[in-house]
Predict the structure.
Amino acid sequence: MAEVIDIFFNAVDRRVDVVVKNDARSTYIFGSESGIYSAFLNILLNSAHAMPGGGSIKINLSNTYLSQVNCEQVGFKLSPGKYIKIVITDTGEGISPDIISHIFEPCYTTKKTNEGSGLGLYTVYGNIIIHKGSISVDSTPGHGAEFSVFLPTTTVGIAKDEQPQSQNINTDGKNVLVVDDEKTICDLLSKFLKTLGYNVLTSEDGLQAVAQFKKNSDKIDLVVMDINMPKMNGSTATMEIKKLNPDCPVILITGYSEKEVIKSAYKYGASAVIEKPINFATLEKIINQVVIW
């Protein structure tokens, strides 16, 4: 959890104050590292997006024991035992009752077409359930939201995901252009790619990306770009980039799982398409599959 908070803290708008209180002595969870990280990163992103003008996010961690009665009260298929409870509270806009009952449903979003693609709460829900936990949200419009997660603890520790086979790829001196109109997402992707050893350039929309690629077409080795952006979407930008350098791989990211959207992305020249919320282990694996250097 500390790694997730660190990545989020370094990428989030400085007007958002992040406060962490960790009273948990046992924090080991048996499961997928990337799955857990992705789940909490997306909850935090959801909170940040609810506070466009800034605010506060509080993260509380504690240990608890759930009896059979407690498990039945939570409303999920939990087994009695020791759990870690993570509560994430924000001072954002809050969620109305008619929306709160749908936010964990597939492809559900309250965002308009030009405002991004939603933050993957359905996938968050799935990750928590896979780890035999529970997630709930409580909110009042105008008074923020509170996400509560229970996950069973273990003495074994969280399982490390299988490392991609091409771990020995030399990333030194390789340049990646990251394109996303959502600054937080762009910053998170940039930070992750830098940890892999890449140099990173950024653009905030497709039009800017094409202009930047035109100036640096001989230097940019890979493009990682969102599809749904203002001014010029990722698919059109991919087509323009391919005109400048047909051999440059482009990985597109989409918040929509419709087959036509994905099919269209490949038609425009995408080397791969990743669905949001972004799983960093999956992104690294796909990069290692599509690049040749």
